[in-house]
């Protein structure tokens, strides 16, 4: 049971978030721009904004202190084009535009803009899977920021540390990854210990909300790491903590909240708590249908897997897997489609033949 549930969960937890999401709060230079720059894992605690492009440009202008310049300042315009290409996953074009912007910033001797561009380039490298390059750039951004006077426990430094921990995770450097995750979580908890942040969410400053969200993102990422290491109970607590924050910050009808419902449900199934697993996955599906979630195929496939492992209703399991396959084909989700077919094949081995006559 554990191995099968784990295979479902590991595959689908790595599904990338849509590129039209923006973090609810942000700390590092580029995280103001778009969650697509910081996928995955981090791809957490994001929120749609009514005007993504305007928000991106406004954040960029504010960060670089260019509010008084013309909106189409060449440097700003070029950085914006680089980020838009990053969102479109045209990484080569994004890098080209950002290197043009970097040359412009260097000609102006604008070190703040240079640091910003290096951070975006680091995220491009991360998205491409060039983790050596991403690590080098993130470390450089961190050093430049600290040299400019940024405290080592600043949220921007913590966010970069989280991305570095994820890089070490990708490399299977468990020791460094765990040190990174624990630094992020411990640093944020020290800031959060003086008040009940969830109880007074509406009264928090932007920095305080950012601190809370970054703690939850770090906790979620550490939960994924714990699950990969086979520490199921520890992973369960991490996901539940992150889910609590996402419900408060993002609300129930949000991709991040639904994704975390899926995570908690999957972990519950690994612990043989099938009733809770089914409840959470069905809740994710119900809300997901209302908001037309891009991860519905994932939720249905996981539901089918849990129903199959529980063994109470192979017919329901088949229905869930077939719905998952239909949705996966409709949304061109090849991974979900492959997993749905695997689910159906496994059902054929386990279930009475009569189930598949329909």
From TrEMBL:
One of the GO biological process terms: mitochondrial respiratory chain complex III assembly
Location in the cell: Mitochondrion
Keywords: Mitochondrion, Repeat, TPR repeat, Transit peptide
Pfam families: TPR_12
Chief location of this protein within or outside the cell: mitochondrion
One Gene Ontology cellular component annotation held by this UniProt entry: mitochondrial inner membrane
Family classification: Belongs to the TTC19 family.
Protein name, entry field: Tetratricopeptide repeat protein 19, mitochondrial
Species this protein is from: Rhipicephalus appendiculatus
């Amino acid at each position: 049971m554990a191995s099968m549930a784990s295979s479902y969960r590991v595959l689908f937890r790595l599904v990338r978030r849509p590129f039209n999401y923006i973090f609810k709060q942000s700390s590092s230079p580029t995280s103001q721009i778009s969650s697509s720059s910081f996928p995955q894992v981090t791809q957490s605690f994001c929120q749609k904004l009514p005007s993504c492009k305007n928000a991106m440009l406004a954040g960029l202008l504010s960060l670089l202190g260019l509010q008084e310049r013309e909106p189409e300042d060449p440097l700003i315009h070029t950085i914006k084009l680089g980020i838009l290409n990053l969102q479109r996953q045209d990484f080569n074009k994004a890098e080209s535009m950002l290197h043009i912007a970097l040359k412009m910033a260097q000609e102006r001797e604008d070190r703040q803009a240079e640091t910003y561009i290096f951070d975006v380039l680091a995220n491009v490298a991360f998205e491409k899977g060039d983790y050596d390059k991403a690590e080098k750039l993130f470390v450089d951004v961190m050093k430049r920021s600290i040299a400019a006077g940024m405290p080592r426990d600043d949220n921007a430094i913590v966010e970069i540390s989280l991305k570095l921990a994820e890089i070490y995770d990708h490399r299977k450097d468990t020791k460094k990854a765990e040190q990174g995750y624990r630094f992020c979580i411990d640093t944020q908890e020290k800031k959060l210990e003086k008040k009940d942040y969830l109880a007074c969410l509406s009264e928090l400053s932007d920095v305080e909300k950012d601190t809370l969200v970054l703690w939850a993102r770090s906790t979620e990422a550490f939960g994924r790491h714990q699950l990969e290491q086979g520490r199921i109970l520890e992973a369960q607590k991490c996901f539940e903590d992150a889910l609590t924050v996402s419900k408060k910050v993002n609300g129930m009808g949000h991709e991040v909240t639904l994704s975390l419902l899926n995570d908690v449900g999957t972990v519950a199934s690994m612990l043989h708590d099938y009733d809770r697993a089914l409840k959470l996955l069905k809740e994710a599906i119900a809300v997901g249908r209302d908001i037309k979630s891009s991860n519905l195929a994932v939720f249905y496939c996981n539901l089918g897997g849990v129903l199959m492992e529980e063994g109470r209703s192979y017919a329901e399991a088949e229905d869930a897997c077939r719905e998952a396959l239909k949705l996966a084909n409709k949304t061109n989700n090849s991974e979900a489609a492959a997993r749905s077919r695997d689910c159906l094949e496994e059902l054929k081995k386990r279930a009475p033949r009569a189930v598949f006559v329909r």
